[in-house]
Specification:
The protein is of the alpha/beta class and about 750 residues long. It contains 24 helices and 27 strands. It has 4 domains: about 120 residues, Rossmann fold, CATH 3.40.50; about 180 residues, Rossmann fold; about 140 residues, Alpha-Beta Complex (Aspartate Aminotransferase, domain 1), CATH 3.90.1150; about 190 residues, Type I PLP-dependent aspartate aminotransferase-like (Major domain) (Aspartate Aminotransferase, domain 2), CATH 3.40.640.10. Helix 14 packs antiparallel against helix 21 and helix 23 crosses helix 24. The longest helix is centred in the C-terminal third of the chain and has 22 residues. The protein binds pyridoxal-5'-phosphate.
C-alpha cells in the first residue's frame, strides 16, 4: 500500500518535531518550503493530511488536495483555514482547544502578580540603582480577599478562577453563556466596578470587540489592575493608554494587542505599571509537548479513518445519528463538547486524553465525558469535587454506591475466601443460589451465576436450544440484551449490530408491543416457523420505560406454551426492586421459563449476573452451558447476599413504590407546566420523561452542570433510574434540576 503523506506547513515552527518518530512511522512528511498559497496549492495534491498552524489553507488548497482525509491545526484558532471549503468536501478540520489552558492561565496570573508586587519595576530599579529598599513607591498589593473579576468562563477563565480561589481571592464572573452553581456571576458593568483584578478570557466577536471601553475603564477602581491574554481588541487600547495616563487604573498586564507585533514606540511601553509579553501566553514546555502529542494522535486517528476529538466543522457529521442513540446518549455530540469546554479543568482534560489514547474508542464509552474520584449513596463525585446525583448508574445501584453493608460483606469475604476455582464451591455462592431460588417466582429454582449479564443471556439461549432442540428465537426490535455476538443477534439495536456481518440465524424480531393485540406478531411467527425455541424480551423496556399491557404477556405466555417455545425474561436492569417488586414480572403475574438478572445483583461493587430456570430444565449434566472463570465468586456472592439483605431489611421495595408514586405526581406537574414534555412514565423508580422536540441532549448537559446525571435513550427520552435509597427530598431536588433545564 502507498505510504500516506502528511503535508506540513509553517516550516519555521518545526511542528511535530518531538513526535517525529511516530509521525514518520505512519506517513511520509512533506514540508512546504514556504507558506505562500501557490506553494501550498502545489504540494496539496499528494497530501492525505494537512498539518498546519498559521499558513493559509484556502479553498484552492483544499480543492487541490484530492486525497485529503483531514486538516490538523497546530493550536486553537482555525481562522487561517477555509472551513466552508473543507466542509463542502466533507473533510474534517480538527484543532487542539485545550492544550494550553493551564499555561495561558499561568501567564495571566504571572502578569497579575508581577503588577501586584511591582516585580518588573523593582527589578529594573535594582539593576539601575542597586539596593533600593525602603522605597514607598514599591509598596505592593496582596491578593488574599481581593476580588478577581473574570470575563469569560471558558476553559482558561475557569483555570484562572481556580488559581484565584487558591490564592484566597473572591471570584466574580461575567459570562452570559455559562452557568455554574459554585461561582458568583455579575453583569459586565458590575464586574468592572467591583474587581480589584480584571482578567479577560473571552473570544473576539463583534459583541466583545472593544467591550472594555473608556467609560468602563473610568468605572474601574483606581487601584485595579487589568490583565488581557485573550485578544487585544477586547480593550479600546487608546482608551487604556488614556486611563493609565490619568491614573484611572493601577496597571495593565498585556500579552495581546490590537496590532501585533506592537510597534517599539508604542505609548504602552512608556508606563512603568504596564507589563507586556509578545502573545506567547501559551509558551511552556508542557503545553508544547501536549500540543505535539495531541496533533500526533489526531493525525493517527484520521489516517486510521477514525474521527478524532475536537472536530471544528461538525456539520460534516451525518445528520442522522439516531442509530447511535437507541441505547444511550452519544459521546460525539456537540453539547458534550461544549459542556466539557465549560466545566472541566486541565487535570481532567489530561486524564481524559490519556484515557482516549489508551482505550479502544467506541460509541457510548471512550472518549469519555468526565473523570470521577468517588461514588457514595446516590452521588458520583467528579475529579473537581462536584457531586452529581446519579440517576443512571448503569442500573447497578439499587442500594446506592458503596453501601456500608455491602462494603463490609465484601471486605469480610476478601479476608475469608477471595476466589473459588472451578470444581469447588463455597458457602456464599450456595447461600446466594438458595436465596435467589427462594425469591424467584413459580418453579424457577435452579441457578447459574456469571460475571456479566451478556454471559447470562448467552447461557439462557443455550439452555433454550438444549431444552427445545430448536435454535430460533423471537425478540424485540431495538432491544438490548448484551454486546456479544449471540446477544446482539437477538438484540435489535442498529448501533450494536451494524457492520458485524452474519449474526446467528433464525433470530426474528417484532416491534415493541403496547396492547394485547400486538401479540399477534409473535403468534404469526410461531405458527409460520413452527420451530421457535424461545421468545426473549425485557418484560418492560428499561431504557424508555415502556410497559406492554399486562394482558400482552399473559397471552404471550399462553402462546409459548401452545407452540413449545420457552419464555425468557431479561430482567438484568429491572430485577431486585427497580420497579417496586423484587422482579418486574411479578407485576403482571407471568412466570417465565428462564429469568435472567444481573447489574445491581453485585451491589454496585462486583460484576455478577444469574440465570434462574425451572427445576425440570436441570437435565444437561453432560453439556457445557458456560462455566465462566468467576462463576462461583465468593466475593461477588457475598456482595449479592448483602445487597438482597439491604433491599429486604431496609424496606426498599415499599420505599420504591412510595417514591415512584411521588415521582409520577411531580412529573405530571412538570409536564403540565412544560409543553415540551410529551409523556411521562414510571413503574417504581424506573422513570422516563419523553421530550417532544430535539432538546433532550441539551437538557442532559444542563442537568449535568447542576448536579444531576441520567441517560438519554432513543434520542428523546430522559431515563431516570435513581438509586432506590434516594430520599423524597433528594427526588424533589432532582426534578427541580430537570425543571430548570426545561425552562
Ligand atoms: C436489558 C439488558 N440486558 C443485558 C444487558 C447486558 O448486561 P452486561 O452489560 O452486564 O453484560 C444489559 C446491559 O445494559 C441490559 O440493559
Amino acid at each position: 500500500m502507498q505510504q500516506p503523506i502528511i503535508l506540513r506547513t509553517d516550516a519555521e515552527l518545526n511542528m511535530g518535531v518531538s513526535v517525529m518518530t511516530e509521525l514518520t512511522a505512519m506517513a511520509r512528511i512533506v514540508t512546504a518550503e514556504d507558506d505562500r498559497p501557490e506553494t501550498i496549492v502545489r504540494c496539496a495534491p499528494e497530501a492525505d493530511i494537512i498539518f498546519t498552524c498559521y499558513a493559509p489553507i484556502t479553498a484552492e488548497v483544499i480543492n487541490a488536495a484530492l486525497k485529503l482525509r483531514g486538516i490538523v491545526k497546530y493550536g486553537v484558532g482555525v481562522d487561517s483555514i477555509d472551513l466552508k471549503a473543507a466542509s463542502a468536501r466533507g473533510i474534517p478540520v480538527v484543532h487542539c482547544p485545550d492544550y494550553g489552558t493551564g499555561t495561558v492561565a499561568d501567564q495571566a496570573f504571572a502578569l497579575l502578580m508581577a503588577l501586584a508586587r511591582k516585580i518588573t519595576q523593582i527589578d529594573r530599579g535594582m539593576r539601575k540603582g542597586g539596593w533600593l529598599w525602603p522605597e514607598p513607591k514599591f509598596l505592593g498589593t496582596e491578593l488574599g480577599n481581593k476580588i478577581m473579576g473574570i470575563v469569560g468562563l471558558g476553559r482558561i477563565g475557569s483555570a484562572m478562577a481556580q488559581r484565584a480561589l487558591g490564592f484566597g481571592m473572591k471570584v466574580l464572573v461575567h459570562d452570559p453563556y455559562v452557568e455554574n452553581e459554585t461561582l458568583v456571576f455579575a453583569t459586565l458593568d458590575e464586574l468592572v466596578e467591583r474587581a480589584d483584578f480584571l482578567s479577560l478570557h473571552c473570544v473576539l466577536t463583534p459583541e466583545t470587540r472593544g467591550m472594555i471601553t473608556a467609560e468602563r475603564l473610568r468605572r474601574m477602581k483606581h487601584t485595579a489592575i487589568i490583565v488581557n491574554v485573550s485578544r487585544g481588541a477586547l480593550i479600546d487600547q487608546d482608551a487604556l493608554v488614556e486611563a493609565l495616563k490619568n491614573g484611572e487604573i493601577a496597571g495593565a498586564g498585556l500579552d495581546v494587542f490590537v496590532e501585533e507585533p506592537l510597534s517599539v514606540d508604542h505609548p504602552l511601553y512608556s508606563f512603568d505599571n504596564v507589563v507586556c509579553s509578545p502573545h506567547f501566553a501559551f509558551y511552556t514546555r508542557e503545553a508544547f509537548e501536549r500540543l505535539e502529542r495531541q496533533c500526533c494522535d489526531k493525525i493517527r486517528a484520521l489516517l486510521e479513518g477514525k474521527m478524532p476529538p475536537d472536530l471544528k466543522n461538525r456539520e460534516i457529521l451525518p445528520d442522522d445519528d439516531s442509530h447511535l442513540r437507541t441505547e444511550g446518549d452519544i459521546n460525539l455530540s456537540e453539547h458534550r463538547q461544549q459542556w466539557q469546554e465549560n466545566h472541566l479543568d486541565v487535570a481532567t482534560h489530561e486524564l481524559l486524553d490519556r484515557d482516549a489514547r489508551v482505550f479502544i474508542h467506541q460509541s457510548l464509552s471512550t472518549p469519555c465525558l468526565n473523570t470521577i474520584t468517588g461514588c457514595e449513596g446516590i452521588y458520583l463525585i467528579d475529579s473537581q469535587g462536584r457531586r452529581l446525583m446519579d440517576f443512571h448508574g448503569n442500573s447497578v445501584h439499587q442500594v446506592g454506591f458503596g453501601h456500608p453493608r455491602v462494603i463490609e460483606a465484601v471486605k469480610n469475604q476478601l479476608d475469608e475466601l477471595s476466589f473459588c476455582p472451578r470444581r469447588y464451591t463455597n458457602r456464599p455462592a450456595v447461600d446466594l443460589a438458595e436465596k435467589l431460588a427462594a425469591l424467584a417466582p413459580g418453579a424457577l429454582n435452579k441457578v447459574l451465576l456469571t460475571p456479566s449479564g451478556t454471559g447470562a443471556i448467552g447461557i439462557a439461549m443455550k439452555i433454550a436450544r438444549y431444552i427445545t432442540g430448536r435454535h430460533k428465537t423471537v425478540s424485540m426490535t431495538d432491544s438490548f440484551h448484551g454486546a456479544s455476538l449471540d446477544a446482539i443477534s437477538i438484540g435489535g439495536e442498529a448501533l450494536v449490530r451494524d457492520g458485524l456481518g452474519p449474526l446467528l440465524p433464525g433470530c426474528f424480531h417484532v416491534p415493541w408491543p403496547k396492547t394485547e393485540k400486538d401479540a399477534d406478531a409473535i403468534e404469526k411467527i410461531l405458527i409460520e416457523q413452527k420451530d421457535i425455541g424461545a421468545v426473549i424480551a425485557e418484560p418492560m423496556r428499561c431504557t424508555t420505560v415502556e410497559r406492554p399491557h399486562d394482558a400482552y404477556w399473559q397471552r404471550v405466555r399462553k402462546l409459548c406454551d401452545e407452540h413449545g417455545a420457552l419464555l425468557v425474561f431479561d430482567e438484568i436492569p429491572l430485577a431486585l426492586g427497580r420497579t417496586g417488586k423484587m422482579f418486574c414480572c411479578e407485576h403482571f403475574g407471568v412466570t417465565p421459563d428462564i429469568l435472567v438478572i444481573g447489574k445491581g445483583l453485585g451491589g454496585a461493587i462486583m460484576p455478577l449476573a444469574a440465570v434462574i430456570v425451572r427445576e425440570d430444565f436441570d437435565i444437561l449434566q453432560d453439556r457445557a452451558l458456560g462455566h465462566y472463570t468467576h462463576e462461583k465468586s465468593p466475593v461477588a456472592s457475598a456482595a449479592a447476599l448483602a445487597t438482597i439483605a439491604v433491599i429486604e431489611e431496609e424496606g426498599l421495595l415499599e420505599h420504591t413504590r412510595t417514591l415512584g408514586a411521588e415521582a409520577l405526581e411531580i412529573m405530571a406537574a412538570v409536564k403540565s407546566r412544560h409543553s415540551v414534555v410529551a409523556d411521562i412514565r414510571g413503574l417504581g423508580l424506573a422513570l422516563a420523561m419523553e421530550i417532544g422536540d430535539d432538546s433532550a441532549d441539551s437538557i442532559l448537559y444542563h442537568c449535568l452542570s447542576n448536579g444531576l446525571s441520567f441517560k438519554v435513550s432513543a434520542g428523546n427520552v430522559l431515563t431516570l433510574t435513581p438509586p432506590l435509597v434516594i430520599t423524597s427530598e433528594q427526588l424533589t431536588e432532582a426534578f427541580q434540576i430537570v425543571e430548570s433545564a426545561l425552562s
